[in-house]
Amino acid sequence: MIARHALACCFVLLLLAPAPSLAQSIGVRGYAAFGVVQLAAKDTFEAVADTSQRSTFGGGVQVTNIWKGIFADLSVFTMSLDGERVFVDNGEVFKLAIPLEIKMRPIDVAGGWRLNYGRVSPYVGAGATFLNYEESTEGDAATEPVSESKAGALVLGGVDVALWSVVHVGGELRYRHVTGILGEAGASAEFGEDNAGGLAAAVRVSIGR
Amino acid sequence: MTRHIPPRSTLLLGVLALAAALSTSAIPMLAQQRMLPHNLRMSREKAAAVLQAWNGRLPYVPGEVLIKFRDGVDTAGQVRALSALRAGIEGRNARWIGDVLWVRAADEPDAEQLATALARQPEVAWAQPNYVRRTKARPNDPEYAARQWNFDLIDVPRAWDINAGAAESITIAVLDSGMTTVTDTFRFPLWTGDRIEEVAVPFRVNPDISAARVLPGRDFIFWDGPVLDMDGHGTHVAGTALEETNNNLALAGIAYNAKLLPLKVCVGYWEIQIVVSDRGIPGFVDPEETGFCDDAAITEAVRYAADNGAQMINLSLGGPGQSPALLEALRYAVGRGAFISMSAGNEFDEGNPLEYPAGYGPQIEGAMTVGAVGADSTRAFYSNTGTYVEIAAPGGNPRDGSPRGFVWQSTPFFLDFDPFTVTRPRFDRFNLGGFAGTSMAAPHIAGIAALLSTQGINRPAAIEAALARFATDLGAPGRDNDYGFGLVNARASLRGFGVAK
Q: Does A139 sit within 8 Å of B495, measured CB to CB?
C-alpha cells in the first residue's frame, strides 16, 4: 500500500514537472531518511513480532550529475524489532515468552539516473545491498545469537523537491532482496520465507547540490 | 486360540497348589482381610488369577476381557452378547471403564479365547484380553551417586535458564507402581518363612518431593487406601520428572514445580505377597517376577488422569498384545489435552517385540514412544527399536560399567525390601537408586513436556511436534528406528524458533 502511494506521487510529480534539464555540473548531497519498511518475510515477522512493518532511518551521500544525470549513492539504514521466540506447528504459532531482539542494517550502493524539472528531481536507480542481520535473546549462549551479512539486490526510485538551492525534501522507495539469511532455519523456514529484505518508503531531507 | 502356560521356573509348590484351589473357590479364606485398614481391590478370584499370571508369566490376567459394544447396542443386546460366555456374569465380575466393559469369566481362564468368542458377537465392536504390562526398568543394587549425566546430556540445566521447573499449575500423572502419598505404618499379612503374620510396614513420602506438590492420587489395582509404592519403580520414574530441585537434598527432577498425580496401576512382589497372604496362602511368591500392571487398571487410570486435570501422562510400562481399550483411552486423554509419554520397551535382546502402548505412539499426535540412550548418546542395548520409536532420552546403559550406566533418583532403599533377602519390608528410608531402562527415558520426555507447556506450547500434538523438531538427530539422518527423531534436547525445544534460527 505504501509503495503504491509513493509511486503514484512520483508519477504525478513527473507529470507536473517542467522539461528536464541535464546540463548541470557534478554535485554532492548528503541526506537523512526516515520511513517504514514492509518486510518481505511477512508471515515470519508477524509470528515473531506481531508486525511485518517497522520504522527505519538512515542516511547517505549521493554524487549527482556524474554524467548526464547519472548519480552514485551510498547509504546505510538501520531498523530493529522486538518480538519473542515462537514455535510453529502446522501454521499455528505458539509464543514462547522468550524476548527476541532483531537488528537489520543494510548498506546500499547504487547508481541511477536523475532528471531535473526545475525544483523537482525524480530519480531511479539500482545496485547492491549488504545486509547485516542480528537476532539475539538475553541469556543466549555463545553459539546461539545470529549475526549474518549477505549481499543482495537493490532497486530504488524517488523524487526530490528543492526548497532552497541546496535543501531538498523528497520521497523514496527502496526494494531490497537478500537471500541466504532467512529460510534455512527458524520460523522463516517454517513459513518458507527466504528474503530478508523488503520494501522501504522513506522521506528524505538532502543538503547539497 | 489356545495358549499354553509356559514352564514355571521358580514356582513354589505351596503357592501353586493353593492358587489352583482358590480358582475354584474350594477353600474357605482365612479371615485376615480385617487386618487391613482399607479393602484390597483384588477379590479372591482376582488374586488367584493374578497368581496364575504371575507364576505362569502369562501375558494376560486369566479369565478377564475388555469389551466395547457397537454404537446403539442396548442393554438387552449387551446381555445377549455376553451370553456367549459359558457362565453368566455377576455384577461384581463386570465393571464399566468409560464405555469399555471389564468382565471376568472365572470358568474360562484363556482370555484370548474368551476375547475371540466375544468379538464374534454382532453386538461387539471389539474384545481384548486384559493384558498384563510390565514396568520397564532394570533395578540395580542401591548405591550413592551424585551425577545426573542424563540431564546434562539433554541440556536440561540450560533449559531451566529459560523455564525453571515448569509452572505449579501443571500436573504430571505418573501411572506406575505408585509413589507413596502418606507417611504411616500399615499392618499387612505376610508370609515370614513359617507362618503368615501381621507385619508392621512403615511408609514415608519421598522426602525429596514436597508434599505440597503431591496430589492424593489413586490406587487402581491394589487397594482402596492411599497410594503406596512397594517397588520403587514409580517413585524413581516420578523423581526424574518431578523431584525437588535446589533444596540441597538428593537429586533433581526436570519439572520441579509441577504437581504429581500418582496413579497406581502396577503391583510388584510385595503387593502380590500381601494379597496372597491375605487370602491365607502360605509361601513366598516368585521373587524373580518384576510385577505387572493390567490393561483394566491402566485404561481406567489414563481416563482418570485426563478427567482430573493432568496435562502430562507418563506410562513407563508395556507388554505384548494390542489393546483397543488402551488405545481409546490414550486418544481420549490426548483429546482432553494431555500429552502422553510412553516407554518403548527393554526387550531388544529378547527378540525386539512390538509392545503396547508403545506401538500406539505414531497413531496418536500427542503421544510419544521413547527409546533409551546411554551416557554416550548411543542406543542402550536393551532399548527396543522399530517404526514406533519417536524420540530418545537417557535411560542408562548398565554395560557402561560405571554409575553413569544408570539414571539416579531418590527412591526407597532397595535393601529394605529386597524380596530375595527381606521378609519384613519397610519403605520409609530413601537413598539414591540407580535404574536403567526405557522406563527411565519416558519421564524425561514428560518433564520436558511440562516445561514446554508452561512456556506456551500446550496442545499435545504441538508438544510432540516441538520435541521431535528440536531433537538432536542421531543414527541414520532423519527419523530412524533406533532413535526416532533423535535425542530430546530440552533447551532447544524450549527456545523454539527465532526468525533465522
A: no
List Cβ neighbours of A183 (8 Å cut-off, separation of 6 or more).
Answer: A189, A192, A193, A194, A195
Q: Does B152 lie at the interface with A, CB-CB under 8 angstroms?
A: no
Q: Of A79-93, B78-92, B248-262, B396-410, where does mean pLDDT reach its minimum?
A: B78-92
Average pLDDT over residues B391-398: 96
pLDDT of B1 strictly over 60: no
Sequence-distant (6+) residues with CB within 8 A of B419 are: B269, B270, B273, B284, B287
Per-residue model confidence as pLDDT tens digits over B5-64? 232 232 233 333 333 333 333 322 333 334 577 888 877 777 777 777 777 778 888 889
Predicted local distance difference test score (pLDDT) of residue B5: 28
Task: Tell whether A168 is covered by a domain.
Answer: no
A143 Cβ neighbours under 8 A, 6+ residues apart:
none
The residue segments making up the domain with residue A97 are 2-125+147-157+175-208
Question: Which residues in A have their CB inside 8 Å of a CB on B?
Answer: 41, 44-45, 48, 83, 85-90, 92, 94-98, 100, 102, 133, 135, 137, 139, 141, 144, 146, 148, 181-182, 184-188, 190, 196
Please tell me the distance from the alpha carbon of residue A79 to that of residue A109, in angstroms, as a whole number. Answer: 18
Q: Is residue A41 part of a domain?
A: yes
Q: Which domains does chain B have, with CATH numbers?
A: 13-132 (no CATH), 138-495 (3.40.50.200)
| Confidence (pLDDT) at A18 | 45
- Taking every pair of Cα atoms in chain B, the longest distance, rounded to a whole number of angstroms, is 74
Grid coordinates representing B381 are 542395548
Domain total of chain A: 1
Contacts of A82 in chain B (CB under 8 A): none
Provide the mean pLDDT of chain B. Answer: 87
Q: Which residue of B has its CA nearest to A42?
A: B499
B499 closest CB neighbour out of A48, A139, A144: A48
- A144 or B69, greater pLDDT: B69
